[in-house]
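As the work plan foresaw, the team has encoded backbone shapes as discrete tokens. One protein thus recorded appears below exactly as we store it.

:::
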Amino acid sequence: MPPLNAPPTPSPSPVPPVAAAAVRFTRWLAVGSLLGLIVLGLAWELWLAPLRDGGSWWALKVLPLAVPLAGLLKNRMYTYRWVSLLVWLYFTEGAVRATSESGLSALLALLQVLLCVSLFIACALHVRMRLRAAGKEAVAADVASATAAAQASPSSTAP
């Protein structure tokens, strides 16, 4: 039996390897989708189907997408949360342009919509899996500390 004042030993990570692999997959899917949106936005507005010949200032629309890239690469939970909200602006633009334009521009808009949905799903699943894993770990830590505290102090109901 460990000494009464010893800190509880950490339990092995409650996240199974399959869940850890799924978290890594969602992370890279989110990063890939975000990079895809950046490349698509630049190529679309500068070369493939710009609004004006020679390129369009609409290419600047990808600048807000560059901001969360560092946060996703550093695996910051807050970034995943707000990107899942930001992406709906680009989804809306893609949906409007897919239905109002024709030819290559409509296909590019459809690709933008698909990348937005992919990014949203990846962010939502990533946050959900990480919170679920943190929840299990937090419960395990609470149980360990409660057990240690119960062993360390005498029972108040004992005569």
Helices lie at 17-48, 63-73, 77-100, 104-152. Residues 9 and 103 are 63 Å apart (CA to CA). The chain has a mean pLDDT of 84. The longest helix spans residues 104-152.
